[in-house]
Design goal:
2 copies of one chain form a homodimer. Chain A has 341 residues and is α/β, with parallel strands linked by helices. Chain A is built from 12 helices and 11 strands. The mean pLDDT of chain A is 89.
Chain lengths: 341, 341
């Protein structure tokens, strides 16, 4: 298996670099073919690597970055004022072919803007999109995009999201003809806004996407589609609303259980099982999100990522790098251009 | 207490008139001050009323309608081709001051279009909105609107939704200065699309609304706001996505419980308790939605409403009629016009 190099922004995220280094520890075991470049403030990172006995690890390199993008930095400011941030340096490693992918738990807006600045989009791609795997009722996953990179999208952009998601699902979910659906407020053709309707027409006209029609919010997890397309405003709100409901339900279960004498002893066993299984059901927290459409693999881990979540983001970076996802998307875009001629 | 008359469209909904009549039975007990006009096909409704011993009830009137709006009727068609539908007749009773409110579980699009046609909006109100109460973490509810009446909204319309929601929360939730928030993909002022940003400015400039800023999807149920404003496209998708997730989680719990030998016996008691409590957490299913901004009270019950859900919609109609909600909104709009002079 070819050697891969993964660049890790160790300074991003709410929980500090120690989470990142613990996740790296796990990744080193699981991916013996991977090199890791840890980017961050060396006075902070080096002791952590030493503590975990990784400072002399043959597959770990520490790369110093004198700046850190904070969670409150404005995207434009982070690009202009922090050229030596750990985030930017990790991205530049990918841009300069020194790494095959990068992972960051940093400020989403800053990551998108820096990634766009350093990597640029694949030729022909209008906008990168934030994509994540969401769980489905019968098991398995669907890819949903955009989750917040683009608050406003035109129909050409949404069409490309479907195209990119389709390639990603072929590679990542091993589905030959992924079913692509558009998220809408109704299933009938007359429903929704003009952009959604125009996008539906573009899908219907293209042989490159296996378009199956509109899907409503209540079918987001129903296993009806493999790729779910929406603009970043709707996608972000839909997924975060689900997160909010999951929290509410967990609270509700807790109080339901506590209220009943028969069930009080039951709490520990059952509730913890459930909570564990629900981590997975909060896709925004658990899965990394791919910033696809760029000339390199960029994975965004949740700012509040646990060790497991950050490890899962690294895993995703490895998979997308192995699949050469940007290259696969580039090929599909070239097919699209031929189709349009 | 003043006598109120509630018009009930008995033909709407997926579950047929028998659900409606059973809910009416319950409403008669709970609201001794109310008269009910049941509108529908008398050959179908009369036997149901007889069976429930309601055909000679002093507070129940049956009004025949020769037509029924089906779930697949296009809104415009239902207005043009079905002037004698049970839905329209019930609305006309409100328009002609023969009833104080109407309730229907029929086709949402048709109900909105017929209601707009029969009742018109309150002077100064641009668009009616679909509003529902959604549960909050510390108990209680918040009002969310629009949930699907308007797929595209400008900032003036969203501002008015905040104004109407605010009046509704004062009346319905007994909150003196309801906290009004705008649903957005981030809490920072730079986040979101132009319409959301322009609406935020309108709210900030008005003394008539206690605006508290942006709210993200994951805070939808967190008790941070009393009124949550969004366009119908986003609102519909956010709430339905939550419904989808609730279904997925319920499945997940079931299989989690079943998988464990210790817990299998536990299923019946626990799962049913949970399912009952979750009905309430699926706001779209359980609560009626108010179509506010019209010159009369119109409550939409879910197409798939149970007896309890339809009863709850009737209850809501009674409350809004008692509160004279359309009149209260009219007064606030007049204040708004003064403010703008």
């Amino acid at each position: 298996m070819a050697t891969l190099t993964i660049a890790i922004d160790a300074m991003g995220g709410d929980n500090g670099p120690s989470i990142v280094i613990a996740a790296l520890q796990r990744a080193l075991k699981h991916f013996p073919q991977c090199q890791f470049v840890v980017v961050g403030d060396e006075t902070e990172i080096h002791p952590l690597l030493q503590r975990e006995k990784l400072s002399n690890h043959p597959r770990v390199t520490l790369k110093h970055a004198s700046q850190t993008v904070t969670m409150s930095d404005k995207p434009g400011y982070s690009v202009r004022a922090k050229p030596d941030s750990s985030m930017r340096i990790a991205l530049e490693l990918v841009a300069n072919d020194k790494a095959d992918a990068m992972v960051s738990a940093g400020n989403t807006g800053a990551l998108m803007t820096n990634a766009y600045f350093s990597l640029k989009t694949i030729p022909g791609i209008l906008r990168p999109a934030l994509m994540s795997a969401i769980p489905q009722a019968q098991g398995g996953s669907a890819f949903m995009l955009d989750l917040g990179a683009n608050p406003v999208c035109d129909s050409d952009t949404l069409f490309q999201f479907g195209l990119m998601g389709s390639v990603a699902a072929q590679q990542g979910l091993a589905i030959e003809r992924p079913r692509v659906a558009l998220l809408n407020m109704g299933e009938e053709e007359i429903k929704g806004n003009d952009v959604v309707k125009a996008t539906a027409q573009l899908f219907q006209q293209s042989a490159l996407v296996n378009y199956i029609g509109f899907i409503e919010g209540d079918d987001l997890f129903a296993g009806k589609a493999d790729v779910i397309v929406c603009d970043g405003f709707v996608g972000n709100i839909a997924l975060k609303s689900c997160e909010g409901l999951a929290d509410l339900l967990l609270d509700n279960i807790r109080s339901n259980i506590h209220n009943h004498w028969l069930t009080r002893w039951f709490v520990k066993l059952f509730y913890q099982r459930l909570q564990r299984s629900w981590d997975w059901l909060k896709p925004d927290h658990y899965n990394g999100a791919s910033l696809i459409g760029l000339r390199g693999v960029v994975i965004k881990s949740h700012g509040d990522a646990s060790i497991r979540a950050f490890y899962s983001a690294i895993e995703q970076a490895v998979h997308e790098a192995q699949q050469h996802l940007p290259q696969r998307i580039r090929e599909r875009v070239e097919q699209l251009l031929l189709e349009q001629e």
